[in-house]
């Protein structure tokens, strides 16, 4: 049957039209840069925007009909900033509370590798995992006064994340360097929260 | 930077035809298949600096594509109900030339992840382990669902299909 199946699939593909005109590579690069810019909108350059821009996001987050990648991390980061307004989310040096957002395409193996790395890391304490579902429930609760924003984000749009606190806030730059390029990690966001014990 | 973009252009050239065909087998619409392929390439370029030297690009691109397909189906789940109607069982007089049409209809009745398993395994010829990695499930899930899906297709396609 298997051989047969492949032949039938090949036959189903026979009506393949010519690819549309235009340079696919350049188109993909242009669209890819836009996706990257959106992903970095809040977390890449200035986390300060997470505070200032939380409401501005309503106009930036693409709706589900746009056909583009859901804008995940900025929405999640904005939710964090709103949930913990007492924290300073602008610092990149001294950080007590950290969220590691995972990519959309993260595999079980990558997630497990990140987790075991964090579990073995002496600078990490209070390690916790937040699923997409849990993130969305929190997100909806936080933004219940802005139904348009909630609607624009969608249940599958929020990333999974590891949440943790640092044993020493000053170790954050090293921590960031260790994890930010690990496969499966999309972005790392940290804040200095006065309530978190040193 | 230049080398990185050149590598991306080479990847696009090498991977696009197959991605587009796989997308078509998943959605049965060439226009949509083209859009899903373009979205996949764009997403890959967005992460290119991170993945181009490290990731298994073949598996990675399939994963991005399948996630795009799953998302798209979720969004269009209403219209999918129409497609998911059981195909007519091919009667005695069904011309063999139509069998691939029947196959595509039968495929559409499977859960979307099972469709992905069938297409990756039996059209792309990916190994069980490769499919497991692409879809983020275990190898045993791939094996079991693949077997079930083939049995189901056989059932829908009728005797003629097995005997060929």
Summarize the model shown.
The complex is a heterodimer of chains A (198) and B (164). Chain A is of the alpha+beta class and 198 residues long.
Can you write the helix and strand succession of chain A as a string?
HHHHHEHEHHEHE
Query: What's the main sheet of chain B like?
Result: none
- What is the number of domains of chain A? 1
Query: Strand portion of chain B, in percent?
Result: under 5%
Helical segment tally of chain B?
A: 10
Distance between the termini of chain B: 53 Å
Record the strand order, biggest sheet of chain A: 2-3-1-4
Please bin the fraction of helical residues of chain A.
40-55%
Assembly state (oligomeric)? heterodimer
Using only C-alpha atoms, the radius of gyration of chain B works out to 17 Å
**Largest contact between protein chains?**
A-B, 43 and 51 residues
Total strand segments of chain B: 0
Indicate the proportion of strand residues of chain A. 5-15%
Q: Could you say what the CATH topology of chain A is called?
A: Alpha-Beta Plaits
Q: In which range does the helix fraction of chain B lie?
A: over 70%
Mean pLDDT figure of chain B = 84
Which blocks of ≥5 consecutive residues of chain B have pLDDT under 50?
80-87
Radius of gyration of chain A: 20 Å
**CATH class category label of chain A:** Alpha Beta
CATH architecture of chain A: 2-Layer Sandwich
Specify the CATH class of the largest domain in chain B: Mainly Alpha
């Amino acid at each position: 049957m298997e051989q047969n199946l492949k032949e039938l699939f090949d036959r189903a593909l026979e009506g393949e039209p010519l690819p549309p005109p235009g340079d696919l590579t350049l188109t993909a690069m242009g669209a890819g840069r836009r996706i990257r810019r959106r992903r970095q909108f809040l977390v890449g350059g200035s986390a300060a925007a997470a505070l200032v821009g939380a409401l501005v996001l309503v106009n930036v987050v693409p709706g589900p009909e746009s056909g583009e990648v859901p804008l995940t991390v900025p929405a999640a980061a904005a939710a964090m900033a709103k949930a913990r307004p007492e924290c300073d989310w602008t610092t990149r040096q001294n950080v007590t509370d950290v969220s590691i957002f995972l990519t959309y395409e993260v595999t079980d193996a990558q997630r497990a590798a990140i987790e075991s790395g964090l579990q073995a890391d002496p600078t990490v304490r209070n390690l916790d995992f937040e699923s997409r579902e849990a993130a969305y429930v929190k997100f909806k609760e936080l933004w219940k006064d802005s139904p348009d924003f909630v609607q624009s984000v969608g249940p599958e749009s929020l990333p999974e994340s590891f949440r943790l606190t640092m044993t020493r806030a000053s170790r954050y730059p090293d921590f960031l360097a260790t994890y930010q390029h690990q496969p499966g990690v999309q972005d790392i966001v940290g804040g200095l929260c006065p309530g978190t014990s040193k | 930077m230049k080398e990185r973009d050149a590598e991306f252009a080479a990847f696009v050239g090498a991977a696009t035809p197959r991605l587009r065909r796989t997308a078509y087998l998943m959605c049965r619409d060439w226009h949509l298949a083209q859009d899903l392929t373009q979205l996949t390439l764009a997403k890959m370029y967005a992460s290119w600096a991170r993945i181009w030297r490290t990731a298994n690009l073949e598996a990675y691109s399939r994963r991005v594509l399948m996630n795009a397909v799953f998302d798209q189906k979720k969004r269009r789940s209403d219209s999918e109900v129409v497609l998911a109607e059981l195909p007519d069982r091919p009667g005695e007089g069904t011309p063999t030339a139509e069998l691939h049409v029947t196959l595509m209809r039968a495929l559409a009745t499977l859960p979307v992840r099972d469709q992905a398993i069938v297409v990756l395994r039996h059209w792309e010829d990916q190994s069980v382990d490769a499919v497991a990695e692409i879809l983020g499930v275990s190898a045993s899930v791939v094996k079991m669902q693949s077997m079930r899906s083939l049995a189901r297709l056989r059932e829908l396609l009728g005797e003629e299909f097995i005997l060929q």
